[in-house]
Amino acid sequence: MQTPDNFQHFKAGFIAVVGRPNVGxxxxxxxxxxxxxxxxxxxxxxxxxxxxxxxxxxxxQMVLVDTPGIHIGNKRALNSxxxxxxxxxxxxxxxxxxxxxxxxxxxxxxxxxxxxxxVECPVICCLNKIxxxxxxxxxxxxxxxxxxxxxxxxxxISAFNKKDVAYLKxxxxxxxxxxxxxxxxxxxxxxxxxxxxxxxIREKLMRRLSDELPYGAxxxxxxxxxxxxxxxxxxxxxxxxxxxxxxxxGKQGQMLKDIGTDxxxxxxxxxxxxxxxxxxxxTQENWSDDKRSLRSLGYD
Length: 300
Ligand code: GDP
Ligand code: MG
What we know:
By secondary structure, the protein is α/β, with parallel strands linked by helices. The protein contains 9 helices and 9 strands. The strands form 2 sheets. A 6-stranded mixed β-sheet has the order 2-3-1-4-5-6, sandwiched between helices. A 3-stranded mixed β-sheet has the order 7-8-9. β7 (about 215-225) and β8 form a beta hairpin. The longest helix is centred in the C-terminal third of the chain and has 18 residues, at about 255-270. The two termini are about 35 Å apart. Guanosine-5'-diphosphate (GDP) binds near residues 40, 46, 129 and 132.
C-alpha cells in the first residue's frame, strides 16, 4: 500500500458521467469499477440521486459520479431535484465523461451539450451501444455527424465489451491529476449500505413493472440489522395510488415475492452475507411532488 509521502506518482480525481437518460451511464460505471453499484434499467430516469463509485488501485483512484440524466421533464419536485443534481455534478470535477447513445442525437443531448460547454476540465465524448450497429461504416457515419457538436476525440464503445471499457478506463486515468487518494481506498462508494440496498430494490421494481408503474414508486428502509451472520432488512415500497399498490403486490403476492427474490440476490452479493429481506407496500399520495416527503426520503 502507498504511504502519504510516495503519492507523487498517484493519480486521483472525480469523473462526472453525464448524458441524457438511458444512454448507459450507470451500466458503464458498473463496468468501469467492476462491481454492481449503480442501478440500471431500460427505463429512462432510473437513477435519481448522485452516487460516487470509487475504484482504487496502488496507482490510481477514480471517483465516478453517476448522475440522473439531464432531461426535459415536467415540473414535479422530483424532476427538478433530478435536473439540479445532474447539472451541479459538473462543478469541481476533474474530467467530464459525456455519454451518447449511438443511435440518436436528440434535443435532450443538445441540452446536455449546453451544460458541457460551461465546464473547464477535459471532456471525453463517448459514443455508447455501438454493438447495436451492423457495420463499421455505420459507426463512422455517426461519428462524423457528431463531430459537428464536439471538437476533439469521440470514443466509440459498447459498455458490454470489456476491451472497449478497458481502453476508455486508461484514457480516463491518463487525464486525472497527480494527487493523493480522495477517499479511503477500501471504500466502494460514499453512500451507505442502506442506501445502496434501497436502490437495488427500486431497480427490481422498475425492471419488473416497466410500464405499469411510471416513476410513482420509491423505497424506504425501515430496519437494517446484522445479527448472527445474517442481515435482517425490512423495506417499505411507497407508491402514489392504491391501483399501483395492487400491481406491486400482484396476484397472491407473487409480484412482491419475485421482486424480493431478485433484490435479495443482489444484496447478498453486495453485503457478502446471507440476507433476510421483508418487503411491504404502502400508498402515499403525491410523494414525488411533495418537497417535505422528498426530503424525508433522502432526496435532498
Ligand atoms: P442511464 O440512464 O444512462 O444510467 O442508463 P442505464 O445504464 O440504466 O442503461 C439503459 C439501458 O441501456 C439498459 O437497458 C442497459 O442494459 C442498456 N445499455 C447500456 N449500455 C449498453 C451498450 O453498450 N449496448 C447495449 N446494446 N445496451 C446498453
Ligand atoms: Mg442511471
